[in-house]
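Run: sequence + uridine-5'-diphosphate -> complex structure.
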Amino acid sequence: MSVNTKLYEGKAKILYSTEDPEIFLADFKDDATAFNAQKRGTISGKGTINCSISSKLFLELELSGIKTHYIDSPAPNQMLVKAVKILPIEVVVRNIAAGSLCQQTGLQLGTVLKRPLVEFYYKNDQLGDPLLTLERLLLLELATEEQVRLITHLALQVNDFLIGFFEGCGITLVDFKLEFGVNSQQQILLADEISPDTCRLWDATENDPNLRVMDKDRFRRDLGNVENAYQEVLQRVLKAVDANN
Ligand code: UDP
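>> structure
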């Protein structure tokens, strides 16, 4: 499929149009940013690793009945996706307290939540991606009430699936961020990526709070061995997918 123009360049991916208006091509980059792009760097091989992990997870989610934008991965760092308009909302699902939840509520890192927490953040770098209330989300017309209901339901379904999948990899799913898009038929599809950039993943057999980290917190907190951790997640995901099929 021939690639046409660059539509958008984000922090981790470049999106291109293709000859088919219903299909985009996402090119995953090695660039890494944190703290609203105040910290920048490169994680060598990240584009390929995140694209591979995301591709496998989207395929598994499709098999479990969740509609995603995934079509194919024509190269290790490239994903063909269904064209969608991304809703400007970051949907965060949490199973264990970490990150901004601890900073903003005083909950202790590692507190297991009684039930998953679904939160919405405004995808707006200039405003620093603030936490939204439902009323604010509706006020700003970022999505309709019906879309919010559906997205919440889908996010919890994705969480149920991913908790089990990662458990099979010896990984504890702490929290993660999802993005959803709307296609030309007004259907909501799971979009963006699911990777160590967008999830907190802890090695289930490791208790040391630094050694257990297998995600972007290694980059955010300068814990070292970032590439190794991402690569280890990929190897475990590939093994679990093989075992499932
Ligand atoms: N997250 C993300 N992109 C963002 C913000 C958060 O992928 O712009 C992910 C993050 O990796 C974590 C989860 O969403 O898995 C919750 O992040 P949190 O709100 O704790 O913010 P952080 O501590 O990353 O600032």
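>> summary
The chain has two domains: 3-82, 85-225+239-244. The CA atoms of residues 41 and 81 lie 26 Å apart.
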